[in-house]
Amino acid sequence: MAVATTKSDMLDSTFDVDKLTFEIFSILENKFLFGGCENPKLSLPQNNQQILTKNVTESKVRILSIDGGGATDGILAAKSLSYLEYCLQRKSGNPNASIADYFDVVAGSGSGGILAALLFTRGKDGRPMLTADGALRFLIENRRKLNQSPRGIIRRIFRQAKVEKLFRATFGECTLKDTLKSVLIPCYDLSTRAPFLFSRADALEMDGYDFKISDVCLATSVDPMVNGAVEMRSVDKKTKIVAVDGGIAMNNPTAAAITHVLNNKQEFPLCKGVEDLLVMSLGGGESDLGLENLNSTPARFVRVAGEGASDMVDQAVSMAFGQCRTSNYVRIQANGIIGKKQIKSEKRTNILAMTEEMLEQKNVESVLFKGKKIAESTNLDKLESFGGELIKEQERRKTSILPTVVLKQGSPSPRTSSATTLSTSSSC
């Protein structure tokens, strides 16, 4: 018996064809844009009722941002990352899981830039140069060398020479092209009187923007009040900058990292807004600068200005995330004022105990038009929860049809050209 075809049936059939057509052309477009690489995930789903956009819109770009300076000189951030890496290993069942495996972008300023370099520079085995625990040990063991403020020109020169030697011994000839993910590290360039952002993406575009990692770490951490500026050149010697502390340019680089992702459609083609981001921002603790004394040194005023700017960035970013700020944006910061001299004079075991105490504090959240409030969860709770979200995103990418991240790839050092290719792995 024949069944009459109604207008509604015809519309439903047309709609199904349109969905299938959309899926087909999306896959063809993806293969065309990303070099026609063979990827089993780019095959058509067996059931044409699956909506392609569902998997696409659920994926999120993962950003890690690390403040410079602060009372702990990066040790609080390093301890946070050590705990987060432990969470990721435990939740994923992979004892070798690293921070670099679960973030697509890292931005770090000052000591945060050094941390970013340690965790995201490619080692000899192709894995990150250091684990989070290793990076924590590096900052603790070298904290006096990195953050000392000696008096006298001669002592300052010797201190600067020691720091340069430390970075060269740690990173060797590695450059920005040798980083595993999208890396952003700022400094302030006195020659142009503007912020300069060392960027892996720019380095892969032009050798004139490729710098040695040792020089990048020096540029972002040099204290202008102690050592003045540092002159350096790109790998091809064509670009010269006169660098001072990244904290002067952007002590909290979170906003720069978000802007980089939202405006870089080549590497992050599916990211449309903050709802497509997962962001973790790490502070360094608020320091007791004694600014009630009007005779405070210029260095102290510079530091308090940097910490104030970090709080402003946190407020602005939190407001930009709106209703999803508690799920898509996490800020880890110590609540109270910490004596910086006390941190520097403490032994390693005591410093670790102090940072653990900071992580056990209740988390501080920015509230729309209402400043900040103390949340019920602690910093450790937030790290644990965010680690779960990172694991979910990693698993989601295994079933995603289109790649969330398409990072530029270049040949490792040594290199003779600036030729780049595109990697279309959806689990970047």
Write a brief structural summary:
This protein has 428 residues and is an alpha/beta fold.
Give an overview of the whole structure.
With 428 residues, this protein is an alpha/beta fold. It contains 16 helices and 14 strands. The chain has helices at 7-33, 52-58, 75-92, 111-120, 132-141, 143-147, 153-171, 200-205, 213-221, 246-250, 254-262, 298-321, 325-328, 340-345, 348-359, 379-399, and strands at 61-66, 105-108, 182-189, 194-199, 230-233, 240-244, 277-282, 286-287, 329-332, 337-338, 362-367, 371-378, 408-410, 420-422. Strands 1, 2, 3, 4, 5, 6, 7 and 9 form an 8-stranded mixed sheet that branches. Strands 8-10 form a two-stranded parallel sheet. A two-stranded antiparallel ribbon has the order 11-12. The longest helix has 27 residues, at 7-33. Residues 1-17, 27-53 and 415-428 have low confidence and may be disordered. Pfam families: Patatin (PF01734).
Q: Which SSEs are present, and which pair or pack?
A:
Blueprint: H1 7-33, H2 52-58, E1 61-66, H3 75-92, E2 105-108, H4 111-120, H5 132-141, H6 143-147, H7 153-171, E3 182-189, E4 194-199, H8 200-205, H9 213-221, E5 230-233, E6 240-244, H10 246-250, H11 254-262, E7 277-282, E8 286-287, H12 298-321, H13 325-328, E9 329-332, E10 337-338, H14 340-345, H15 348-359, E11 362-367, E12 371-378, H16 379-399, E13 408-410, E14 420-422
CATH superfamily: Cytosolic phospholipase A2 catalytic domain
Estimated share of beta-strand residues: 15-25%
Alpha-carbon distance between the termini?
55 Å
In CATH, the architecture is 3-Layer(aba) Sandwich
Main β sheet profile: 8 strands, mixed
How large, in whole angstroms, is the Cα Rg? 23 Å
CATH topology: Cytosolic phospholipase A2 catalytic domain
Counting helices, strands and paired strands, the structural category is alpha/beta
The residue fraction in helices comes out at 40-55%
General shape: globular
Contiguous runs where pLDDT drops below 50 for at least 5 residues: 1-17, 27-53, 415-428
In CATH's first tier, which class applies?
Answer: Alpha Beta
What string, H for helix and E for strand, traces the elements in order?
HHEHEHHHHEEHHEEHHEEHHEEHHEEHEE
Number of domains: 1
Query: How many separate helices?
Result: 16
Q: How many strands?
A: 14
What's the average pLDDT? 79
